[in-house]
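Subgroup meeting minutes
Present: P.N., E.W., G.H.
Scribe: E.W.

1. P.N. recapped why we're keeping a running log of single-chain structure predictions: easier to compare across weeks, and new members can see raw inputs and outputs side by side.
2. G.H. added today's entry (213 aa).
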Amino acid sequence: MSDTRAIEHPIWLMNGDSAPSTEPFRLFAEWFAQAKQVEPTDPDAMALATVDADGLPNCRMVLLKDFDERGFVFYTNLDSAKGKELRATPLAALVFHWKSLQRQVRLRGQVEPVTSEEADAYFASRARLSQIGAWASKQSAALESRFALEQACARYAAKFALGSVPRPENWSGFRLVPTVIEFWQDQPFRLHHRVEYRRASPRAAWTKTRLYP
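Output recorded in log:
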């Protein structure tokens, strides 16, 4: 495995100039592309933190399915714990940690639902068994037995035996629109590189600050 310190830092990460509006997304795209080349398992895995009805934080791993300058997209059952929490309190945080690269990216911001067209297109791209599973699973609800889940899968497999599997109404996606993005790169003696991009609103310009490690 290559030494991550041999990977050259983009000059626009380390310079002191004002950041153009696309800069953190451009940097994320570069880091993500590198992670997909060297991370052995799920480079698109990210920790998603939400807030529950009692005001307590809740965190779990999900997969990034799309990103651009509008934000970072993931999908779920809307009746799951995270689905309910995000609809009640549309604020969240994400963390990517690529151990092979010794890098981390943290994001915070508001969350908005994806469009029906986006959800339909992604659902159609999933493996058929994953589509059936989306119908069969009452995600986050108490499961009486594994057999009950297998029965539900069999029932929906029979129901949709012919033709395409439609997207369930309670299955869709969310887009985190970041107002804070922090990039972290491991360095010797724990003198790590940390660069934070921050904006007052999704349409505002980014400001860039270097942080003590």
